[in-house]
């Protein structure tokens, strides 16, 4: 029996069977740390991707901005004009004409201007005597009525003995103001403490007429009390300006000439041209020449800036397309593909659809663009080329000038072709018998058409009007297929907007039509459309980084990765929470087991004691 009890008492308790509590907790903690390390690695991978996407977004935003300058002619200055001047007379051209301004409507070429006479204002100078001013700050002793007739209107100024020259000038101005006259009086300093009173029209030209002065002496005798009459130092009537523009005489009351030729304005400085009998068309005067030319310098700079912004895109593509890094050098490498890395800290976006989109933008810039006959179709025709550059150890293609003289010559010889290459161009050729006016409506967010059946092709359109002049049908023929446009009437303007449905080969093309006198007719127009390279790339970049209220692909991708980072963080927190709960539960269960083991030990001891008693009794 003792053998039985010994065996029972020395049996394996539950604690011995389960093992050490500390060993369990240690093992669980190790698993948690491994999980945290794995989560940290996964998070680092995604945060690296987010950083690269952010860099890509900045590059795309810059590209969009540079493209926007090129696609906005008013801002870009495609129609910018500059002027230069010369003169047949001695001295600088600015001695004759100044403040020359030209805008995008100004014609390129020379405008010859002979200044025969400048516009002047009516003027009267009052003095105490010939060449003598009035004493300042003292009563002049003048007592009577002075009447000034200006612009045909008589204005009476009542002077009394105590009036100073300053007070008399103020009374004159008060009379002019009350009468609403465009004249004014002011003091002109004389010798010593004296001043003259100058009365002058505010505007130049003969309209002011001569200023007439008359006196009414209250004391009689023709003298205005002490000091004699107010003396008319000088009295000059206003005159109009007379100039000859390309041999055509023009007369006006002002020296400011606005749009004398479309888009050209200037002012006369005050000097007139000298005589030259050989210039009969200019009233036998010498002339000044204003030369207007197109200024492409700013556009050239913007094109180069545009290309340079795409160089940055080339770099980020090359950086993320690296494929020959060994897995032994990259902790994120796929061990099953020894010479190919994924989720790489050096090429974090490798394999991402974003890289495919970015590559399409770069290829759009560096490959052939569709166009019409005679159009420029690649940057290489502008003397540009590609060369290799290295940045931060990454080799990539960059834009450079193989021959800048070609670039300059294209601008000088055929600037319209350069413009068509970068900016979408839509030409509308109207039948000579048409009476309706059709206008292309470009939109900032229009989808560019690249279908070869449309680009650079002459597309016949037909507009049909009923007996009331309403547009009832608008069609376009592409590759022998007739496409019907949607028609919307604007009752406010009386015009019709026509557009083509989404999915149509002409989707994005929209026109405005003013019927004029088109009634019961069908009118034909030829449309020729060529998308601009900057417009195409702007659209591509916008699809990746949207600015029209929609999410671009980079934004959607970043949102997805950020959601993954959040999920990883949530998962890590859950694992840690579960471990804590497991540890607490384990500790509770071990306490229960320990109690059970103690009770078992007591029971075993009691049994052993009972058995020992039985054994002793039996003996």
Report on this model:
- This protein is of the alpha+beta class and 619 residues long.
- Among the domains are: 94 residues, no CATH class; 114 residues, Immunoglobulin-like, CATH 2.60.40; 108 residues, no CATH class.
- Helix content is 35%, strand content 27%.
- It has 11 helices and 27 strands.
- Strands 1-16-3-12-13 form a 5-stranded antiparallel beta sheet, with no helix packed on it.
- A hairpin with a 4-residue loop joins β8 and β9.
- The longest helix is centred in the last third of the chain and has 66 residues.
- The chain is elongated and about 170 Å long.
- The chain starts with a helix and ends with a helix.
- The N terminus is likely disordered.
- This is Flagellar hook protein FliD.
- It comes from Candidatus Megaera venefica.
- Keywords: Cell projection, Cilium, Coiled coil, Flagellum.
Describe the structure using short key phrases.
five-stranded antiparallel beta sheet, 27% strand, alpha+beta, coiled coil, 619 residues, 11 helices, 27 strands, Immunoglobulin-like
Number of strands: 27
Question: What is the number of helical segments per DSSP (H or I, 4+ residues)?
Answer: 11
Q: Give the oligomer, counting copies of the same chain as homo and different chains as hetero.
A: single chain
Task: Give me the CATH fold name of the domain at 123-236.
Answer: Immunoglobulin-like
- The termini sit apart by 13 Å
Task: Return residue spans where pLDDT drops below 50 for at least 5 consecutive residues.
Answer: 1-12
Outline type: elongated
The CATH architecture category of the domain at 123-236 equals Sandwich
Strand content: 25-35%
Helix/strand structural class: alpha+beta
Main beta-sheet annotation:
5 strands, antiparallel
Strand order of the largest sheet: 1-16-3-12-13
CATH class of the domain at 123-236: Mainly Beta
Mean pLDDT: 83
Protein name: Flagellar hook protein FliD
InterPro entries: FliD, FliD_C
Domain Flagellar hook-associated protein 2 C-terminal: 238-596
Pfam families: FliD_C (PF07195)
């Amino acid at each position: 029996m003792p053998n039985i009890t010994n065996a029972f008492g020395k049996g394996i308790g539950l604690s011995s069977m389960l093992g050490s509590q500390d060993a369990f907790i240690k093992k669980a903690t190790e698993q948690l740390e491994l999980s945290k390390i794995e989560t940290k690695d996964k998070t680092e991978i995604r945060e690296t991707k987010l950083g690269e996407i952010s860099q890509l977004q900045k590059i795309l935003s810059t590209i969009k901005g540079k493209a926007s300058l090129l696609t906005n002619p008013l801002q870009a200055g495609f129609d910018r004009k500059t002027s230069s001047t010369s003169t047949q007379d001695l001295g600088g051209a600015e001695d004759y004409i100044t403040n020359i301004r030209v805008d995008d409507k100004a014609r390129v070429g020379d405008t010859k201007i002979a200044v025969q006479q400048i516009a002047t204002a009516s003027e009267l100078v009052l003095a105490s005597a010939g060449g003598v001013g009035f004493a300042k700050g003292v009563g002049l002793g003048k007592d009577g009525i002075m009447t000034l007739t200006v612009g045909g209107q008589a204005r009476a100024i009542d002077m009394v003995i105590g009036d100073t020259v300053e007070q008399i000038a103020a009374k004159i101005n008060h009379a002019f103001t009350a009468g609403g006259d465009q004249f004014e009086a002011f003091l002109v300093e004389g010798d010593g403490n004296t001043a003259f009173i100058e009365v002058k029209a505010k505007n130049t030209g003969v309209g002011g007429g001569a200023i007439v002065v008359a006196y009414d002496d209250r004391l009689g005798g023709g003298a205005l009390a002490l000091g004699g009459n107010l003396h008319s130092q000088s009295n000059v009537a206003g005159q109009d300006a007379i100039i000859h523009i390309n041999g055509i005489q023009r007369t006006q009351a002002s020296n400011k000439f606005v749009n004398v030729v479309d888009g050209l304005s200037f002012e006369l400085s005050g000097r007139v041209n000298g005589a030259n009998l050989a210039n009969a068309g200019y009233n036998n005067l010498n002339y000044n020449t204003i030369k207007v030319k197109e200024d492409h310098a700013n556009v050239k700079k913007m094109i180069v800036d545009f290309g340079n912004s795409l160089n940055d895109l080339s770099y980020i593509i090359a950086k993320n397309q690296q494929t020959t890094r060994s897995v032994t050098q990259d902790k994120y490498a796929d061990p099953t593909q020894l010479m190919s890395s994924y989720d790489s800290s050096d090429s974090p976006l490798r394999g991402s659809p974003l890289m495919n989109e970015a590559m399409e933008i770069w290829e759009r810039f560096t490959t052939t663009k569709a166009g019409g006959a005679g159009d420029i179709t690649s940057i290489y025709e502008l003397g540009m080329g590609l060369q290799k550059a290295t940045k931060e150890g990454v080799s990539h293609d960059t834009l450079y000038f193989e021959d800048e003289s070609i670039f300059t010559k294209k601008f000088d010889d055929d600037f319209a072709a350069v413009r068509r290459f970068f900016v979408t161009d839509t030409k509308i050729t109207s039948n000579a018998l048409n009476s309706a006016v059709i206008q292309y409506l470009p939109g900032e967010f229009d989808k560019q058409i690249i279908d070869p059946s449309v680009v650079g092709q002459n597309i016949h359109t037909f507009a049909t009007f009923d007996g009331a002049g309403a547009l009832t049908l608008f069609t376009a023929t592409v590759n022998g297929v007739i496409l019907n446009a949607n028609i919307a009437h604007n009752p406010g303007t009386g015009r019709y907007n026509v557009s083509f449905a989404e999915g149509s080969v002409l989707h994005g093309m929209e026109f405005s039509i003013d019927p004029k006198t088109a009634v019961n007719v069908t009118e034909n127009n030829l449309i020729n459309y060529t998308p601009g390279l900057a417009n195409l790339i702007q659209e591509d970049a916008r699809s990746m980084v949207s600015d029209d209220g929609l999410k671009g692909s980079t934004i959607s991708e970043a949102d997805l990765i950020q959601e993954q980072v959040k999920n990883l963080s949530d998962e890590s927190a859950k694992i840690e929470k579960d471990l804590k709960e497991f540890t607490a539960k384990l500790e509770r269960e071990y306490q229960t087991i320990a109690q059970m083991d103690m009770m078992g030990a007591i029971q075993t001891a009691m049994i052993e004691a009972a058995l020992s008693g039985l054994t002793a009794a039996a003996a």
